[in-house]
Design goal:
The complex is a heterodimer of chains A (about 950) and B (about 70). Chain A folds into five domains: about 120 residues, Roll (Ubiquitin-like (UB roll)); about 130 residues, Alpha-Beta Plaits (2-Layer Sandwich), CATH 3.30.70.20; about 260 residues, Rossmann fold, CATH 3.40.50; about 200 residues, Dimethylsulfoxide Reductase, domain 2 (3-Layer(aba) Sandwich), CATH 3.40.228.10; about 130 residues, Barwin-like endoglucanases (Beta Barrel). Chain A is globular. Chain A has 30 helices and 36 strands. With about 950 residues, chain A is α/β, with parallel strands linked by helices. In chain A, about 30% of the residues lie in helices and about 15% in strands. In chain A, strand 14, helix 9 and strand 15 form a beta-alpha-beta unit. By secondary structure, chain B is an all-alpha fold. Chain B has one domain. Chain B contains four helices and no strands. Classes of the chains: A alpha/beta (about 950), B mainly alpha (about 70). The interface between A and B is medium-sized, with 32 and 21 residues. The complex binds iron/sulfur cluster (3 copies) and FE2/S2 (inorganic) cluster (FES). One iron/sulfur cluster (SF4) binds next to helix 4 and helix 5 of chain A. The site of one iron/sulfur cluster (SF4) has 13 residues of chain A, from helix 4 and helix 5.
Chain lengths: ~950, ~70
């Protein structure tokens, strides 16, 4: 068994104080003021027995095992709750202490089966350790404590069990749920020896408010809360530190294995993005990696109605290369392209764009960020000079006011949500701008100061009105603007924004936000010492997504909220490596590091390193590829780890485009929706099967480390490399670290990044170069990346997608905690027990008007298409707005979304679709066709496997 | 929607969003140059020349500047 990390017992004090020197068991030790005696002892290498204390939770002082003697003090104070003092002389060992501690432990043991040899926590139980260290083997109080021994085990959660008979009521789980996760799902019922832990209103874990983050399990010192795989298979024997492959928080984990199988993912206490916390997805939903649906052999077929044929890797590569070259011969060099993945590593993404530019010989490369955060890239580059968020996540700890706009962190970025909630419970104020009443608006011990329930499609009008109030009420930070921003554009912007068309009174008709409430919110924002903005896809996925991003940057500049901790413009990225895939040159107009392809000096750098000629004009973006495919002049596409058939808008259009291709190559771990239209299927490797790096929403580059061998034999970067070689463009990397070295050579913001440094520092926030050798947590500190900040004019242009008589409701889309994106991974885990189908949220008024009751099937029709979902009646959505998620392919949420897109970047307008909803009795035509098509494709796959 | 119609719609949208600027035509043309593949630019120009495209005057003016430098 490997050794887990040293627990210091109590946390480092939040504020580093004066050094304090004391003596523990004769050893002098110096710690910061505010530290506990227990922590000082640990620093001196002395372990004081403890049960209720752990260094990720504030001390609680309930177990009385950690007693010590302090000279000059009476009694035996608990070392976890006693603060150090200069000159203190502490003794942690004495006969009296041993006796007192043994006494306490015997009491625990009397109500706790000491069957350590057969217990699955054997070797990982703090009670066992403490009892052993004190020589306690049985209890003078008998072994039949009535408190817990008979209590039944709660197995309701698919991932962990709660066995009250093992519980010592140390409150660690309760405190973890309250202080770290912020869900407050656990309480202690009863008093003294009879007290016990209960979930919710004495419910099972599954029926309670528990969101399965696992924090209670991580903090439980015994086996009372334990992961089921550990229960069944025993303690892990190996651990490897890696990064979550789900959302853009990028949590660091220890993948713990036994006999080569991953048993559990334990959040890394040293993880700089997550500080030891996790959510249900990263913590528990990794089983998909070994799911039986995994594709493990390359396959090819001539036609999408043919059965698949398993072939060798070599044949798959040469077949693909021949098809692609033949297509280029016939239709021209620009007739093929590639799509990189935000779920793959930086190194893999870099290689795909390199292959497209160097081997395909064009710039037809794009990434799924096109459909999520491309407006962030455009908007932040234009205003601030860099296409990235400005802060580290822990910067929120210094925010006095947080505005969350078009984001739902509780579901989509749960670990950040927990961090944010902690700050809100400490007293920071909160403005939520969202059409829907997201969980943050009102949850345990949190209430938003303002919930501005704006209408879908009115973001620009809203953000302009906020700035209008700031400017016209004299709430600007004039000194900041003067020192940090370009004067000419600012003056023009000031004139524009002061215009009556941007006043809250005028925009009220557009946004639906009462002018007085908006004014109050704007004042609150402008007068907070530190105001931070966090936003998500509810900002970017609009016809004016880029404009809203610029509006957000304008507001932050106008109020001086950039360039220090606690403030900033913070896009919450959807997928784990959206930031990285954008950084790596995945866009058709940009080389790595966001440098335009038309820049001859940049191009020549790459041309020398890559030994090739690069084209100077931008290539096609994903929607342009689809349009060109339907027109007949785009014929070949290589898609790595993306599922455009499900995730991209206007499914009919996408399907037609995919069917028009002559050679579609999909590299994925499953036969995803896109792969059903493919001619070549290259098995992908999951994050557990490869080495590389991910870059999270705070620009943090973290290592992904191989825990198990790739099921299909190759890591994804090796597949791209081999394909490039088959195409005649040589690539010869021995390890992803060599790819990172090349990225560092070519990209100024990555210049100082290397695997050796990542191993040393844990993670690095770019820019990392000579000026910032260890990275840059906060950007734009003394000046903006572009020099002076640029105030962009952000005129409101209403979307074409408006509620009409025919389509009177506005549909918007979002995510749910337990499912991830297109669901290909999470649907193949027990997470589906939490959310088994996409549903339509509709306001009771709108439902009643249509004769729709809870659970009814609703037909949803837009000008793009029609689908059917089950109704959930809720006032979370306002009248006139309906809401759904898109995690299940058969729901066809994107059959309804349209081909409207952001004016600057073509990012689809997922968040606004005018629809009509009616009560129906059967699935839509598309759904029936989908079912048939999916079944047929599964059969064709089965044939290959037999 | 056909590809050329989609391109026309995109160009008009770009024009709408730059309509708050005095130098809208330059901005439109610069934007298209920076972000559109040459094939897209060509198709839109041809569509415009066919006389069937419904394009804003600023887009037409911007298209004239494309390919000239
Ligand atoms: S899993 Fe998380 S939410 Fe559920 S009880 Fe434990 S700490 Fe609370
Ligand atoms: S379940 Fe575990 S963490 Fe919670 S009180 Fe019991 S022993 Fe402590
Ligand atoms: S899904 Fe996001 S929040 Fe959850 S563990 Fe993974 S990175 Fe962390
Ligand atoms: S560890 Fe100090 S009282 Fe429990």
């Amino acid at each position: 068994m490997y050794e887990s990390r040293l627990d210091m017992g109590t946390p480092m004090p939040l504020k580093i104080g004066m050094p304090v020197t004391l003596t523990v068991d004769g050893r002098p030790v110096t710690v910061t003021a505010g530290a506990s005696v227990m922590r000082a002892a640990a620093e001196a290498g002395i372990k004081v027995p403890k049960l209720c204390a752990t260094d990720s939770l504030d001390a609680f002082g309930s177990c009385r095992v950690c007693l010590v003697e302090i000279e000059g003090r009476k009694g035996y104070p608990a070392s976890c709750t006693t603060e150090v003092e200069d000159g203190m002389v502490v003794h942690t060992q004495s006969r009296e202490l041993d006796e007192l501690r043994s006494n306490v432990v015997e009491l625990y043991v009397s109500d706790h089966p000491l069957e350590c040899d057969t217990c699955s926590a054997n070797g990982d139980c703090e009670l066992q350790d403490v009892a052993a260290s004190l020589g306690v083997e049985s209890s003078r109080y008998g072994m039949n404590g009535a408190g817990h021994q008979q209590a039944a085990r709660d197995d309701s959660n698919p991932y962990f069990a709660f066995d009250p008979s093992q519980c010592i009521v140390c409150y660690r789980c309760v405190r973890a749920c309250d202080d770290i996760q912020g869900t407050f799902a656990l309480t202690v019922d009863g008093r003294g020896f009879a007290s016990k832990i209960v979930a919710g209103q004495a419910q099972s874990f599954m029926d309670s408010d528990c969101v399965s983050c696992g924090a209670c399990v991580d903090h439980c010192p015994t086996e009372a809360l334990i992961e089921k795989p550990v229960m069944q298979k025993g303690q892990p024997d190996r651990s490897i530190t890696t990064t979550c492959a789900y959302c853009g928080v990028g949590c660091s984990f220890h993948a713990e294995l036994k006999d080569g199988e991953v048993l559990r993912m334990v959040p890394d206490q040293q993880g700089q993005a997550n500080e030891g916390h996790a959510c249900i997805k990263g913590r528990f939903a990794f089983g998909y990696a070994t799911h039986k649906d995994r594709i493990t052999r390359p396959m090819i077929r001539e036609n999408i109605n043919d059965p698949w044929r398993e072939v060798s890797w070599e044949e798959a590569f040469s077949y693909t290369a021949e098809r692609f070259r033949a297509i280029q011969q016939e239709y021209g060099p620009d007739s093929i392209g590639g799509i990189t993945s935000s779920r793959c590593t930086n190194e893999e993404t870099y290689l795909v764009q390199k292959m497209v530019r160097a081997a395909f010989g064009n710039n037809n490369v794009d990434t799924c960020a096109r459909v999520c955060h491309s407006p962030t890239g455009y908007g932040l580059k234009t205003t601030l000079g860099e296409s990235a968020g400005t802060q580290a996540f822990n910067s929120v700890a210094s925010a006095d006011l947080v505005m969350v706009m078009g984001a739902n962190p509780s579901d989509a970025h749960p670990v950040f949500a927990s961090r944010l909630k902690r700050r809100l419970r400490e007293g920071a104020q909160l403005i939520v701008a969202d059409p829907r009443r997201i969980e943050l608006v009102s949850s345990a011990h949190i209430k938003a100061d303002h919930h501005l329930a704006l209408r879908p499609g009115s973001n620009v009008a809203f953000i302009n009105a906020m700035a209008h109030v700031v400017v016209t009420e004299g709430l600007e930070d004039a000194a900041f603007i003067e020192a940090r921003c370009e004067s000419g554009p600012y003056q023009k912007w000031r004139e524009f924004i002061s215009g009556e068309q941007n006043s809250p009174e005028t925009t009220e008709r557009i946004t639906g936000i009462p002018a007085s409430e908006l004014r109050a919110a704007a004042r609150l924002f402008a007068t907070a010492p530190n105001a931070a903005i966090y936003y998500g896809l509810g900002v970017s996925e609009h016809s004016q997504g880029s404009t809203t991003v610029m509006g957000i940057a304008n507001l932050a500049m106008a109020t001086g909220n950039l360039g220090r901790e606690g403030v900033g413009v913070n896009p919450l990225r959807g997928q784990n490596n959206v930031q990285g895939s954008c950084d790596m040159g995945s866009f058709p107009h940009e080389l790595p590091g966001y440098r335009h392809i038309s820049d001859a000096s940049v191009r020549s750098l790459f041309e020398q390193e890559w030994n090739t000629q690069l084209r100077p004009e931008p290539g096609l973006r994903i929607p342009n590829m689809f349009d060109a495919s339907i027109s007949g002049n785009f014929k070949g596409l290589y898609v790595q780890g993306e599922d455009v058939a499900q995730s991209d808008p206007n499914t009919h259009h996408v399907e037609k485009a995919l069917q028009s291709l002559e050679c579609l190559v999909v590299q994925d771990i499953f036969l995803n929706e896109t792969a059903r239209f493919a001619h070549v299927l290259l098995p992908g490797s999951s994050f557990l099967e490869k080495n590389g790096t991910f870059t999270n929403a705070e620009r943090r580059i973290s290592m992904v480390r191989k825990a198990i061998e790739p099921l299909a034999g190759l890591e994804d970067w090796e597949v791209t490399m081999a394909l490039s070689n088959a195409l005649g463009y040589p690539m010869n990397y021995g390890h992803p670290s060599e790819i990172m070295d090349e990225i560092a050579r070519l990209t100024p913001t990555f210049q100082g990044v290397s695997y050796a440094k990542l191993d040393r520092l844990g993670s690095i926030q770019w820019p990392c170069n000579d000026e910032a050798p260890e990275g840059t947590p906060t950007m734009h500190v003394d000046e903006f990346v572009r020099g002076k900040g640029y105030f962009a004019i952000t005129g409101f242009v209403p979307t074409d997608e408006r509620a009409t008589r025919k389509y009177p409701l506005l549909m918007t889309t979002g995510r749910i905690l337990s499912q991830y994106n297109v669901g290909a991974q999470t649907r193949r885990t027990a997470n589906s027990e939490f959310y088994a189908e996409d549903i339509l949220e509709i306001h009771p008024f709108d439902a009643e008007e249509r004769g729709i009751s809870e659970g009814d099937w609703c037909g949803i029709v837009s000008r793009a298409g029609e689908t059917v979902l089950r109704a959930v009646l809720t006032d979370r959505v306002q009248p006139g707005v309906v809401y759904t998620t898109f995690h299940f392919p058969s729901s066809g949420a994107n059959v309804i979304t349209t081909d409207n897109s952001d004016w600057a970047t073509n990012c689809p307008e997922y968040k606004v679709t005018a629809v009509q909803v009616s009560h129906v009795s059967e699935p839509s035509e598309w759904q029936k066709e989908y079912r048939d098509f999916a079944r047929r494709q599964e059969e064709l796959l089965e044939k290959a496997r037999v | 929607m056909q590809e050329v119609q989609q391109l026309a719609k995109m160009a008009n949208q770009i024009a709408d969003n730059f309509s708050f600027h005095d130098d809208a035509v330059d901005r439109i043309s610069d934007h298209i140059k920076r972000f559109w593949a040459p094939s897209m630019q060509r198709k839109l120009i041809e569509f415009d020349q066919s006389g069937e495209a419904e394009l804003k005057p600023e887009v037409r003016a911007a298209l004239k500047t494309l390919g000239t430098d």
